[in-house]
Amino acid sequence: MATTKKVTRVSGGEDTLQRETFVPTPENKGKATQLRVIAGILWFLAICAQIGAISLLFRPPVSMTWIIILIVVDLVLVIIGSILWKRSNRLDPASEKNKFKFFMQSQLGLVAAIVAFLPLVIFILTSKNIDGKQKGILGGIAVVALIAAGIVGTDFNPPSVEKYTEQSNYVKELTGVDHVYWTKSGTKYHLYNDCQYLKSDRTTEIFEGGSVADAYAHNHKIKPEMGSLCSACEKRAAKEKGWTDEQLQQAKDNALSGVQNAVQSQGDTNEK
User: What does pTM read for this prediction?
Assistant: First the structure.
């Protein structure tokens, strides 16, 4: 049964259909690079704001007002940069094979927060040009800003090439193609545009993509994990195939083993 909702086609997914491991489309990779450049510029400006605040500590009488303003500017720049960086990773995720590179790419927002605030906290607490009360106020504001920027910059469920590949393989096991649907604010992606959870009045538009990766790229509320597949769609696909629960679990295992084999094969190729 076809849906009566508006369906918007999102381009860019077909390129991934025949690949063993996930590879971002040129369009998504270009967007990711653009977001990363902007994030880098914002983080640089944030560090400049921090340097400005530190320099004021060496100019008695210290202007607390200007230091607080610069801390706020620093915080805004770091947070916006971190949000853009995390969005870029949705478009072009890192591989979990290289643990250090994966951590740095996934959590660079956290690193940026530390670099943009920790030196300022240290200079405030060791400054001889402000008294204890001023240190308490400025130090407290800087620490709160550091924590806030660190929380926003941390990706608690980072995307990866392996996660995208695993879920793409699983969708292919269920339907034969990596083709899904999602909504603007939903937390799940779907295999059918007439899914029961897409029929509510709250759903006015359904987005149609070529892959699971497209859903993640266009809706940051969908977590990059196997559980983000709509359970109703999963059961419907299994029923259409006549699968038992054991066969459904086997399909998941096949998707996971496919990722492991692809990663191993990739590693062997790189070593040659």
Answer: 0.87
